[in-house]
């Protein structure tokens, strides 16, 4: 199954200056639980912000740069190529993990969105598109626990594409 995994604020902000704005260990733990043993697809800038391949996952990086090289990742030059490569290598889930341009390209193609929604507003320069409730149905929402390590109010939300809008 093809899924988007993203964390946003109330306005859809996902980052600033190619970095995450917030530190939310509960979100990082969920990210690891969902993606370990699966395929993760990301743009080059997202890969560079992470700085290394994510362990125990098949890492696919999309770039327009023909000479881009990175050890431990599969390099492709389009989202379509990334999806085909993921399907050829793995029978489990494939997670699109950013950035903004890749999310925009992937949104019409994915089956599910796994969203961490921070109930706050941040100053950012990268955004996730608004989730159209005519196309996407919220199937679960779980309020996260705020504590000294997780200082923001947040919810884990799962959306499924409404059947009539499937490709």
From TrEMBL:
InterPro entries: DHFR, DHFR-like_dom_sf, DHFR_dom. It holds the Pfam family DHFR_1. Gene3D superfamilies: Dihydrofolate Reductase, subunit A (3.40.430.10). GO terms for cellular component: cytosol. It comes from the Bacteria. Keywords: NADP, One-carbon metabolism, Oxidoreductase. GO terms for biological process: dihydrofolate metabolic process; folic acid metabolic process; one-carbon metabolic process; tetrahydrofolate biosynthetic process. Pathway: Cofactor biosynthesis; tetrahydrofolate biosynthesis; 5,6,7,8-tetrahydrofolate from 7,8-dihydrofolate: step 1/1. Residues 1-161 form the DHFR domain. It is an enzyme of class 1 (oxidoreductase). One of its GO terms (molecular function) is dihydrofolate reductase activity. Its EC number is 1.5.1.3. It catalyses: (6S)-5,6,7,8-tetrahydrofolate + NADP(+) = 7,8-dihydrofolate + NADPH + H(+). The keyword Metal-binding does not apply. Belongs to the dihydrofolate reductase family. Key enzyme in folate metabolism. Catalyzes an essential reaction for de novo glycine and purine synthesis, and for DNA precursor synthesis. This is Dihydrofolate reductase. It comes from Sandaracinomonas limnophila.
């Amino acid at each position: 199954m093809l899924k988007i995994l993203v964390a946003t604020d109330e306005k859809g902000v996902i980052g600033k200056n190619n970095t995450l704005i917030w530190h939310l260990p509960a979100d990082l733990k969920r990210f690891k639980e969902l993606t370990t043993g699966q395929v993760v697809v990301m743009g080059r800038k997202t890969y560079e912000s992470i700085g290394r391949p994510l362990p125990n996952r098949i890492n696919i990086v999309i770039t327009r740069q023909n000479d881009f090289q990175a050890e431990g990742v599969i390099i492709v030059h389009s989202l379509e190529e990334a999806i085909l490569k993921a399907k050829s290598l793995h029978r489990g889930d494939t997670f699109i993990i950013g950035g903004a341009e890749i999310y925009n390209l992937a949104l019409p193609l994915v089956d599910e969105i796994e969203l961490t929604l921070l109930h706050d507003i941040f100053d950012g320069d990268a955004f996730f598109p608004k989730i159209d409730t005519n196309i996407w149905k919220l199937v679960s929402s779980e309020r996260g626990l705020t504590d000294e390590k997780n200082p923001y109010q947040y919810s884990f939300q799962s959306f499924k594409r409404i059947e009539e809008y499937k490709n």
